[in-house]
Amino acid sequence: MDFWDVRDLYLNHEINKYQLQEIISYGLKEGDGTLKGVLPIFRIEEKDYKRFLNFLQKQGIKLKDLKKFFLQEEQFSLQGEMSLSNNDNALKAIF
Fold first, then answer.
1. Backbone angles phi, psi at 62, to 5 degrees
2. What are the CA-CA distances from residue 3 to residues 34, 55, 75, 80, 90 (Å)?
3. DSSP letter at 68?
4. Distance of alpha carbon 79 from alpha carbon 61, whole angstroms
């Protein structure tokens, strides 16, 4: 599975925006914290980077929001609440 499969799940309403943001935040966590750094994690070819950015922009997803989202998830996991961020194995199974 690659990011484009995840995008299709989102466009078909099989996952919601919150879940999409969580997946992208996972990529930021596993990568170097940049959207360019998630390319290999999500199996996005370099030539499709702009397409990836355009999709995120069209969905209203911004890097600064993703970083805030990620920090909020980290706070929740520090408090012991269950979140998708805590379930790294499930996300690793996707990518």
1. -115, 150
2. 16, 11, 26, 29, 15
3. H
4. 26
Under a CB-based contact definition with an 8 Å cutoff, are residues 37 and 28 in contact? yes
CA torsion through residues 1, 69, 13, 58, sign: negative
Token pair for residue 30? 């596993």
Report the Cα 53 to chain-centroid distance in Å.
12
The structure tokens listed for 39 are: 């390319």
- pLDDT tens for 10-31 read 999 999 999 999 999 999 989 8
Q: What is the pLDDT of residue 67?
A: 72
Residue 95 corresponds to which tokens in the numbers above? 């990518």
Q: What is the pTM of this model?
A: 0.71
DSSP 34: S
pLDDT per residue as tens digits for the range 48-61:
999 999 999 999 99
DSSP 18: H
